[in-house]
Fold:
Amino acid sequence: MRLSHYFLPTLKENPAEAQIASHRLMLRAGMVRQGAAGIYTWLPLGLRVLKKIEQIVREEQDRAGAIEVLMPTIQSADLWQESGRYEDYGKEMLRITDRHGRESLYGPTNEELITDIFRREVHSYKDLPKNLYHIQWKFRDEIRPRFGVMRGREFLMKDAYSFDLTAEDGVNSYNAMFVAYLRTFARLGLKAIPMRADTGPIGGDLSHEFLIIADTGESEVFFDKEFLTMEAPVDTPDSDAGLQKIVDTWTKPYAATEEMHDADKAAGAGELVSGRGIEVGHIFFFGDKYSKPMKASVQGPDGKPTNVQMGSYGIGVSRLVGGIIEASHDENGIIWPESVAPYKVGLMNLGAKSEDCTAACDTLYAELQAAGIEVLYDDTKDGAGAKFANMDLIGLPWQIALGPRGLKNGAVELKNRATGEKTEVATADIVKQLAA
Ligand code: ATP
Ligand code: MG
Structure:
């Protein structure tokens, strides 16, 4: 993408309304703009990141055997009356009355709707297990929308729903999602800690929250300080062996949190430290909480109707954009993990007034694209200082600077955004090096 053709309204100054780094940086890097309290437009750069996160979440759901559907944002109030949650959900639910006086709502979550779909279509235990998910906008009329997309009113969530015949099978489905979440967060370059959680209004028996440790987190958490020194998974996301190592490591804390829970949260267990966490995912197993009132049953092997055992599994896809930035930035801007970076490479023409330099940059741009490398090409007439500052702000993993001096030497300057390391690379080798 040529910057001169793009829509990237960056800001030099810190916007006064932003209290935390990710909100500040998302506004400054031209990723989002607020439409109303807690409701955002995703500008092109932000949208690319959102889509990449969404795709990683999708791939790991698919890998775990979940099947994608797409439910609507607007739901009928009837189903929520059946489950008893129409009243219980309270003011967070945005209620809508249509021209015929029918009550509906903008979905804050989808247990009722998916249970209705399931009960109409599935009638035999032979069709189990099933896990259906979608990635759809939700609305919750949060009392205090804040921190940009981290606590919005409209936000993108992946929510999956599992259906099993027995509680034992249900827990197996839960565990499969637990592992899928570990893989997902590792691929996003995050150290997300699974914590045993209370089930709250969704109800049920077994629940974990996945938290990123950050000073700006809204939840207070206690965790083993060993987790802080654990290697971040950034280098391993694409290798199956690397991911397996992460899953193995976290399966141990899973066991430990279960023990802690049993020992009544082990208040005062020596090695625990307290910190702040950002909740990026939440999984529940809740048995027949919805299937019973909504009569979602299948015929069991004995021929008798049996209420299905359900779980639900959420990931805050739009919250993750802010969460990743909280976990990965410096004083100059964002530092994207390669897996979710809007572009892998930023190419800067430092000699935009010279025809030769511009021609060399244009050629390099075409070669990078031909090699399938995602590149944002700063072909504007801005000065070098502004170009470097802008590239640091938007946080692409690699920066290539090509100016008149480099042109003479047949070399470009390559900078790694995360480490700040700069190297001279022969122009002839740069595409090969970045494609590797
Ligand atoms: P929180 O305690 O932060 O309000 P929750 O327990 O209400 O979260 P869930 O109902 O479990 O959230 O929703 C699943 C996921 O959706 C959460 O883990 C979080 O990542 C995301 N999420 C929830 N509320 C919001 C919001 N207002 N803005 C952005 N993401 C949200
Ligand atoms: Mg909430």
Summary: The first helix runs from residue 21 to 28. The two ends are 21 Å apart (CA to CA).
